[in-house]
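Annex B, item 7. Sequence and structure tokens for protein A, then protein B.
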Amino acid sequence: MSSPILEIQNLHKRFGKFEVLKGINLTMQQGDVISLIGSSGSGKTTLLRCVNFLEDYEVGLVAVAGEQIGYVEKNGKRTRLSEKKIARQRAMTGMAFQHFNLFPHMTAIRNVMLGLIKTRGMSKDEARSVAEKWLERVGMLDRRDHFPGQLSGGQQQRVAIARAIAMNPQLMLFDEVTSALDPELVNEVLEVILDLAKDGMTMLLVTHEMQFAHDVSNKVIFMHDGKIGEEGPPKQLFKKPKSDRLATFLKNSKF
């Protein structure tokens, strides 16, 4: 088997005295689609943010494509990498957030082009070509010259997804990307992600859309109180939960 795209070992994360993550272990191979489900405060978003080092962590290891993220081990001591190296590592993952974080003064295509020019060093023509390809893929090419304020929430989120994927990340992270959308706009974004999964993109998702998690994932992880409470294939996890905690969560989620 090839080396994992993502490997997390014994990950612990604190905010002050409060321990948010209490020893997470997770491995993802290329092409895996894993959904993280669980109640608010269970550590799902914090886990994602540790993967691309938007949050540092006190104990454990996070590695993307075999490279430890954020730190290097020397003589048994852990040393934080330089900000330049951390920035390079962050480019190995793409992340789409609850809120779209588009630059309001830039058109859709300029939002997608920016990282390609600044981080990937592409020429404007090359960046435009890549940006157009991904905007077309998410159904937004005809809105390429619109500013975010001229787009619906679902359209803005699709542009944000195109911007992240255009950077050609090893791994895509999705953090509740539909939670800020009106209900009628949710499906258009979920369809984009489902389409990307069919193409073999490696994805780690935090979602409260249980049916979507069931349909898109080859593995689902139920997080509870900073730990992995249960994990397995979606049919097993959703149809035959082993724990009362998961059974109650699914019942309350109306799955």
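Protein B:
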Amino acid sequence: MNKIQLFFLLRKNTKLSEKRHPMFESNQYGKLIGYIFVAILAIEFIALGTFLGWIGAKEDVPEMMYYVMPFVLIMDFCMRFYSQQTPMMMVKPYLLTPISKYAAIDCFLVRQVLDTSNLMWMTLVLPFVFIVWCGGMTTWAALGMLLTLHLMVVVNSQWYLLVRTLINQSIWWVALPIVFYGSLTLPFIFLPDRILDPILDVISDTLEAYVSTGWLLLIFAILFIVLFAINRHMQMRFVYDEISKKEKTKLRTVSEFKALNRFGQIGEYLKLEIKSTMRNKAIRSRFIQGVCFITFFSLMIAFTSTYNSSFERNFWCLYAFIFFGSVNLTKVMCPEGNYIDLLMVHEENILTLLRAKYYYYCAILILPLLFTLIPVFAGKFSILMVLAYLFTATGPIYFMLFQMAVFNKTTLPLNEKITGKNQMENKWQFIVSMSSMFAPIILVFILKAAFDETVAYWILLIIGILFTVTEQYWMRNIYRRMMLRRYDNLEGFHTTR
């Protein structure tokens, strides 16, 4: 069997594996969310690409898209944490077969290079290239630019694989993309004009000189080959540690979070949540993804004119506060399904666990609060808007998300990675997720139409505070309803382990 035949065989097996997954039918809700999100992004990117192409053609600056690409690549890098698997995760079932391990890894690497998700950015690039081509750019130069911009996205996907593999080994590797992308963007934001202008002139002259030549294409082609080779080596190096559950043990001091002892049993469950975030790859990856998303959009809103409309500012401000809850609390009690029987031993054990989760997810909102202060200082957000959405998250949003404790009955593996299969397990997760994302925005715009913006945010803030201070009452109601369904939920947790 040659590599081409092996490629199509592994592709077929992967698709069959997804269809045979017990949650395949339920995952359709998650796929629907993904399709809606991609459709909205595609419309925005087409409009943005058309606008940039019109400026580039009018001002005779065809290299303008290259100035935008650092922001595009940062967004692309963050989005891959949600959907893209590493070959190391996909090749494990084939390690005991007579298939060459390197051949299998090569096939999965090539598959990700050819994945249609890499073409999403064509909705931004194609309109731009088409318009500048109509504006006078030669056909070969336009095709070269199109290929170069796509190759930049493909190189970014290989860079993501490298970083994701390293982060799976140690959380400290998250500093690598932060330093890399920060060094690309932050100097252009914070450097004074007298220093920045000469740098921009050099970059502009270089791009203008080489944009219509093949040098940029050659540079990124070489970079792609280097990253592909590094990924091939690293995936094979770590794959045996992954399947053999090889543990790296070091004698070190383990934090006991003694400060939480004063809170009794709630304190113990708070320790469990903190340690789960630190040690569990799935929760840790979601946490890193949230920090990347919130940081990126906060900087974009604060220092650029992107997302400058009222709806976009309100949406991203709210999204910053509900992200951590929406990606984890829609599946509340699913990880605990692995040991749900133990939690049933003592009375109100689960109630205490739910309250500890609530306090934990309220506490981590300090991070998005700090990030959203950047647009506040830049004059894009008002402090009243930030506080209104903060308490909306701790109040009505968490109230809705914790309702899923009543309906969730699918066990989530404790160390499951974020993959394409990790979608919605039931329709209620879809409904609650979409409601938490858009209901507050709709309410704000209704109130703004009836009164004004300040009154709208004050009403939202008061509602959020009322839900927050009455947490103990609605949490107990959730616990009672959960206990009424406990045998049905237990059966579901046992079946899906």
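Comment on protein B: The radius of gyration is 25 Å.
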